[in-house]
Every structure is written in structure tokens, then in C-alpha cells.
């Protein structure tokens, strides 16, 4: 009897973890290009086998992450493990903070997209046109250096970079991975379906989910001993993480502790509905000191809706705060990349005005898009839509028009007389009975007449 051994399965491919060994380099424009052809960017479909392409992408992303964090080290950002005090050899989530965090009067807290590696804003920018700095948090770090903490404090604000993406601990690699990368790690073979999730080995205490990570960042860092008393927080949240941030703050007990610290909140691509607000204090804060950016065709920073939303905008606008266009962004991961100048300009304005700042009061209401209803339910359900269909089928035929019968052509005239079919010389060929069901019978009848002529 034949049997297949485990050793007979194809070996999972392995690739280098540096850009040079993978065949790429960083040019003078900070873009990653191919060594073989400098005009080309990263190529995903290098192999015909998808598993090979996935493993190559994993190694490429790891090399990109090393480059980003090497630059963050150069800029002086400190790496902290969560939970605080956890050895780096044990399951933990690394975050980054500015060296002046403890003395900063204003701190910007960034919660990036949960689907990205730590420090990455958009891989389509890093691996394509734009480059590493523009597509990562490096652009944000550089921009914040030019800002003032407040009208009375000229020093740049502090910075906390949360890490909601890498919450799955990879024991062999000694690091956390995002939901996509966890299935691209080396497997026992190239045909294994995925990596089993073991709660004991792969979960990180206090950071098992995005919800827990948001709570951990606020309670351990933003509201802990790492910042000074009276600090003001400017929070920027992207995508699904923005919903978790709002849900955490939308609590009477939590808001009672953080309300005096919150300076502003920027929501990028979230969907937390203001109709679900539970805390009045948080709802007031959203209306007065928060702002949302969404994907829209209007130019960057164009007002789209007030706190009440705008049914005339195709997309979600019920944020409970003013809503603006993110400009050229067409996907969530591009929101912070494209809208960053407008966002930083606004939070600087809020910081300079201090407690006196309040959002401009405006409401925008466009025409609500017309809903197109289609018939729903089984035939015979006697719905309004179905009744409308029946009326359309019946129609109102004018003299000489052919009436419809629900899809089958019936060539009966309006008066009920059967039309006469004549030949080329005007001789009668056949007539159609009044009860003829459809044109198919007419065609068959004509074919029979033609055959009869040929036979004769």
C-alpha cells in the first residue's frame, strides 16, 4: 500500500531579510527600487506559486520594518514593551515614545491601522511612488518637530506611537505580527494551510485584541506615570482602531478621568455612530474639539458635514463632529498619508488656542441620494414592487402596438384579430391563431411552409 510521508511535502521557501539580498535598494528619492531595473518598484508576482510570493512579501516587509525602526532609533524614539516592564524575550507589544515624553506639556498619540506593521502607514507608498518616509510614521515624526506645544511652550510636542497591529506573538521570531503576516511565517511545508492560534503561546497579556491594546496605551502610558500632570493629549486614530478609541472614551467613568487631558481627536475612516454615544461629556467634546476625515472626491480639507452628519454625502458622516475630505486618499491606509498636512495644521491651531478653542458651528445638508428599490421576496408575495411590475407588464398599448404578456411575445393585435403573414408576392402564407402562445410557434410554422415549397 502506498503512503505519503511528511518528508515528501515541498519545503517552505526561505528568503533573505535585507533589501539588498532581496534585490532592492533605496534611491536618492527614498524610494525602494529593483537592483536589476532601477525603474521598477517592488514586484509581488515574482513566482507562479502564490506561497512563494507570500513568503517573499513577508521577508520584504520585515526588511522594510528594520529600515524604519533603525531610522526611529536615530531620531531618538524610545521603544517600550507593553505590559510595562515585560522582558523583550517574553510576549510583549513594542510601542515608541519620544525621549522628552515625561516633560512634554502636549503629547500626540497615534493609533495606526490594525492591519499594518508597526510604523507603517501605507505599503503601497513605501514600496512604490512616495518612498519610505512618506509611507511611514517617519513623516509624522519629522513634521511634529516644527510644532509648538502651546502658545506659552515653544518646544515640540511629545509623541506616542501605539502598535495595534502586531498583537499576535510569534515565538520563533520573538516579535508580534499583524493578522496577515502571521500566516506568512515559515511553515512545516509549503502546502500547510496556516498557523494554528495557541492562546498560551500567541496571545499577549493585556493586549489580546485592539480593544485591550487601546485601553493599555491610555492607562499605562497616557494616564500613567510616563507623562507629567496637566498634559494635553492630541489623539489620531485610523480605521477600525478609531472605533475602539471612541468606544473606550465614550464611557462616563473613563471620560471622568481623561476629559481634562484631551486636547483634540482626529478620526480617520472610522464608523462609530454618534447615535450610539453614551457619555454626554464625550459627545460634547466630539462636537467642539474633534474632527473626522473620510474618502471623498472633494479637495483636501473641504467641509462635507457638520456634527449632525450629511445624508447628501455618499458615505458615513454621522461622527458627531465636523467631517472633511481627505483629498486624494482612495483607501483607508492612505488617509493619514494624504491628509497629514491638514491634520497637523488643525491640531496646532487647537493647541495654540488652548481651552478657548471650539469647532466652527456649521451644518451641511445636501440632497439625499435616491434609493433604488428592487423586488424582494418570493413571487406571489403581493409586494408593492411586484404590483408595480405587473402594471408595467400590462402597459397601455396604442392602436397597432403589440401588448406584452409578461415576457412571452404574443403577436395578437389590439382588436383581437390574428395578423396575417404574407409571402414575397403578397400571397397568404399562414395565419396565427388567437391562442398562439408565442413567436416560436410562428417561426416553426414558417419553416414548415418553406419545406413544403421545396418538396413540391
Could you spell the SSE succession in H and E letters? HEEHEEEHHEEEHHEHHEHEEEHHEEH
Percentage of residues in helical conformation:
25-40%
Uncertain segments are: 396-419, 430-437
Distance between the termini: 72 Å
CATH topology label of the largest domain = Rossmann fold
Give me the count of strands. 15
CATH architecture of the largest domain: 3-Layer(aba) Sandwich
- Strand residue content: 5-15%
Overall morphology = globular
Query: Biggest β-sheet: count, sense, barrel?
Result: 9 strands, mixed
Number of domains: 2
Pfam families: Arb2 (PF22749)
InterPro entries: Arb2 (IPR048263), Arb2_dom (IPR053858)
Protein name: Arb2 domain-containing protein
Biased composition (Basic and acidic residues): 419-428
Task: Briefly characterize the structure.
The chain is α/β, with parallel strands linked by helices and 456 residues long.
What topology does this entry show?
Elements: H1 19-22, E1 24-26, E2 32-34, H2 50-74, E3 78-82, E4 93-97, E5 106-111, H3 123-126, H4 138-144, E6 158-161, E7 168-170, E8 175-177, H5 199-202, H6 210-222, E9 232-238, H7 240-249, H8 252-258, E10 262-268, H9 280-289, E11 290-294, E12 303-305, E13 323-325, H10 335-353, H11 384-394, E14 420-422, E15 428-431, H12 439-455
Parallel strand pairs: 5-6, 5-9, 9-10, 10-11, 11-13
Antiparallel strand pairs: 1-2, 3-4, 4-6, 7-8, 12-13, 14-15
Amino acid at each position: 500500500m502506498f503512503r505519503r510521508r511528511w518528508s515528501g511535502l515541498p519545503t517552505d521557501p526561505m528568503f533573505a531579510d535585507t533589501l539588498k539580498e532581496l534585490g532592492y535598494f533605496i534611491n536618492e528619492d527614498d524610494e525602494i527600487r529593483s537592483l536589476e531595473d532601477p525603474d521598477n518598484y517592488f514586484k509581488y508576482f515574482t513566482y507562479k506559486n502564490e506561497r512563494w510570493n507570500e513568503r517573499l512579501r513577508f521577508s520584504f516587509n520585515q526588511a522594510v520594518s528594520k529600515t524604519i525602526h533603525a531610522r526611529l532609533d536615530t531620531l531618538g524614539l524610545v521603544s517600550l514593551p507593553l505590559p510595562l516592564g515585560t522582558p523583550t524575550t517574553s510576549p510583549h507589544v513594542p510601542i515608541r515614545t519620544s525621549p522628552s515624553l515625561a516633560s512634554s506639556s502636549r503629547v500626540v498619540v497615534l493609533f495606526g491601522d490594525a492591519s499594518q506593521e508597526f510604523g507603517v502607514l501605507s505599503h503601497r507608498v513605501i514600496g512604490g511612488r512616495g518612498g519610505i518616509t512618506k509611507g511611514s510614521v517617519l513623516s509624522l515624526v519629522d513634521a511634529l518637530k516644527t510644532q509648538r506645544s502651546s502658545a506659552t511652550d515653544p518646544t515640540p510636542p511629545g509623541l506616542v506611537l501605539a502598535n495595534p497591529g502586531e498583537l499576535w506573538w510569534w515565538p520563533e521570531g520573538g516579535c508580534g505580527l499583524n493578522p496577515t503576516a502571521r500566516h506568512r511565517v515559515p511553515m512545516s511545508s509549503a502546502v500547510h494551510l496556516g498557523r494554528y492560534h495557541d492562546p498560551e503561546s500567541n496571545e499577549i497579556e493585556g493586549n489580546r485584541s485592539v480593544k485591550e491594546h487601546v485601553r493599555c496605551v491610555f492607562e499605562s502610558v497616557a494616564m500613567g506615570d510616563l507623562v507629567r500632570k496637566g498634559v494635553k493629549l492630541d489623539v489620531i486614530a485610523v480605521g477600525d482602531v478609531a472605533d475602539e478609541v471612541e468606544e473606550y472614551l465614550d464611557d462616563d467613568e473613563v471620560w471622568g478621568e481623561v476629559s481634562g487631558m484631551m486636547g483634540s481627536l482626529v478620526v480617520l475612516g472610522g464608523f462609530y455612530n454618534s447615535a450610539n454615544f453614551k457619555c454626554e461629556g464625550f459627545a460634547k467634546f466630539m462636537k467642539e474639539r474633534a474632527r473626522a476625515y473620510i474618502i471623498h472626491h472633494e479637495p483636501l480639507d473641504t467641509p462635507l458635514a457638520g456634527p449632525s452628519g450629511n445624508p447628501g454625502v455618499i458615505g458615513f458622516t454621522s461622527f458627531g463632529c465636523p467631517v472633511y475630505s481627505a483629498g486624494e486618499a482612495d483607501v483607508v491606509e492612505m488617509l493619514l498619508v494624504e491628509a497629514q498636512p491638514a491634520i497637523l495644521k488643525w491640531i496646532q491651531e487647537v493647541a495654540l488656542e488652548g481651552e478657548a478653542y471650539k469647532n466652527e458651528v456649521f451644518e451641511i445638508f445636501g440632497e439625499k441620494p435616491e434609493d433604488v428599490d428592487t423586488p424582494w421576496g418570493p413571487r406571489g408575495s403581493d409586494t408593492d414592487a411586484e404590483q408595480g411590475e405587473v402594471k408595467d407588464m400590462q402597459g397601455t398599448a396604442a392602436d397597432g402596438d403589440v401588448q406584452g404578456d409578461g415576457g412571452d411575445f404574443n403577436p395578437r393585435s389590439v382588436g383581437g384579430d390574428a395578423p396575417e403573414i404574407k409571402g414575397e408576392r403578397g400571397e397568404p402564407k399562414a395565419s396565427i391563431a388567437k391562442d398562439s402562445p408565442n413567436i416560436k410557434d410562428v417561426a416553426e410554422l414558417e419553416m414548415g411552409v418553406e419545406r413544403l415549397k421545396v418538396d413540391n
